[in-house]
Amino acid sequence: MLITKLKSKEELLSLVTGKVFIINCHGCKEVSFPEQEADELEKDLLAAGKVTGILTTDYICNPENLKLRLERRRTMIDEADAVLVLSCGVGVQTVAEQLGDKKIYAGCDTYRLPGYQGVTPLEVNCDQCGECFLNITGGICPLTACSKSLVNGQCGGSKDGRCEVDPDMECGWERIYRRLEAVGRLDALKCPVQVRNYATDKDV
Amino acid sequence: MRITELFDRGEFVVTAEVGPPKGFHVEGVIEEAKTYLSGITAVNVTDNQSSVMRLGSLATCKLLKDAGLTPIFQMTCRDRNRLALESDLLSAAAFGIENLLCLTGDHTKLGDHPGAKPVFDLDSVSLLHTVRLLESGVDLGGNALVGEPPKFAAGAVVSPCSDSVDAQLAKMERKVMAGADYFQTQAVFEPEKFIEFMEKAKQFGKPVQLGVIIPKGAAMARYMNNNVAGVHVPDDMLEELAADKEKAKAGITGVEIAARVIKACRPYCQGVHIMALGWERHIPALLELAGL
Questions:
Q1: Nearest residue on chain B to A151, judged by CA atoms?
Q2: How confident is the model at residue B262, as a pLDDT?
């Protein structure tokens, strides 16, 4: 099981500077989604004229399924400056993979609960850390894409784009840098020093 | 003495490093340091280098200090969580150790305890941030320190010949933002790449020490090319090392190569950091040939 919880209103509003396309993932049956809070947020954003469209669905971590749904809403997505994804970390990363040239924002933090973790693709992973970092990394999780789970940038162990710990693994921070460069968001790397908070589960 | 004082005075700062032994008999290391490194500004002490368990960096720093040298306490984030790192920073201050080099550290899988838990509670950037926070009299938990807070010269590392140098520069900027006072680089064998890197890095306004390794032979150079991220020994140097095996073995070729690299890069940097990897005895010859 896992819980997705909306980030603070303050943080969410700081992300939505222009127009957004919103994706709500009501998830697999293992996820607890903050439906009411998401509704309230979307009402506010709609009233402010900031929304180009809303997709409410499930299993956005299924790439084929997601692709079809996004294609049908291509115009609404093109009109938006960014896509705000309210889902677990796997969902956000799947959207970011498919809309590579778009700014993707994670609206939720994902918390771990004991039990079955749902069906997710192998390509991306979410550590369910409760303090989602995807907004400063262009939608690539630094905890699962970096062998040291670093949150402040690349170490010195990348060679030919590969991680020296596991040559079968791409350097996660090299990927993050390239992605941020591609979407024109390298300024995200100028964010304040990140210090992990391992006490997050007390908030659930 | 904090080495930032020397950078501030515009001095060209030469440092070297020693690796503590796998055991507690440290007399040999201290003697070697006194013999070959006494002309050098400060001596880095590695922290379980390459994830290989050894005598502690802090203890070795204290012994070197007692022997009249200026140690630089290398701290990695691999083996300790934030409480232990902060506590060791205070211990260093209590011993009068004022120079630090803050690193993330190699992964445990690359060392001699591959089954160990890699910690990485903090990383190089958040460790630098922690140093500056302690200096303001507060710890990472937000609690006040008792008495006068410590004061350090806090260094960091960067890899100028990395094939992802843009990502390295972005990380360097985060280290500057977190409070890094100075930088030491990964070993450089390609002065043109280093100079290009310094053109971009000079915007940060922090002193950079060129990292230097004395190559011990063609085999060692090829090993680094294949296994050490950010280090590349070009073909002409490989040929030079292979041409006269006896000369290379005696250290003469390696010293000549390292001296050439230093001379080519000297106008572009603020110091040199020599990683002799057991060849400390060749350092005096290198300094002389490089004109330092």
A1: B123
A2: 98
ipTM of the complex: 0.94
CB contact under 8 A, A193 and B178: yes
> Do A109 and A7 contact (CB within 8 A), yes or no?
yes
Chain A residues touching chain B at CB-CB below 8 Å:
147-161, 164-166, 171, 173-174, 177, 181, 186, 189-190, 193-196, 198
Chain B residues 227-256 within an 8 A CB cutoff of chain A: 229-230
- A165:B110 CB<8 A: yes
Query: From its phi and psi, is residue A118 left (phi > 0), alpha (psi between -120 and 50) or beta?
Result: left
Enumerate domains of chain A plus CATH numbers.
Answer: 2-135+196-203 (3.40.50)
Q: Quick one: which of B26, B36, B38, B28 has its CA closest to B62?
A: B26
Residue B174, CB half-sphere, CA atoms under 13 Å: how many?
28
Tens of pLDDT, residue by residue over B13-36, are 999 999 999 999 999 999 999 999
A201, A110 Cβ separation under 8 angstroms: no
B125 interfaces chain A, CB cutoff of 8 Å: yes
Query: What's B42's domain CATH number?
Result: 3.20.20.220
The pLDDT tens digits for B92-115 are: 999 999 999 999 999 999 999 999
Q: Total domain count for chain B?
A: 1
Hey, are the CB atoms on A156 and B163 less than 8 Å from each other?
A: no
B186 touches chain A (CB under 8 A): yes
Give domain status of residue B150, yes or no: yes
pTM for this prediction: 0.94
Contact A161 B166 (CB under 8 A): no
Task: Please give the residue range of the domain that contains residue B28.
Answer: 12-158
A54-68, B136-150, B167-181: lowest mean pLDDT where? A54-68
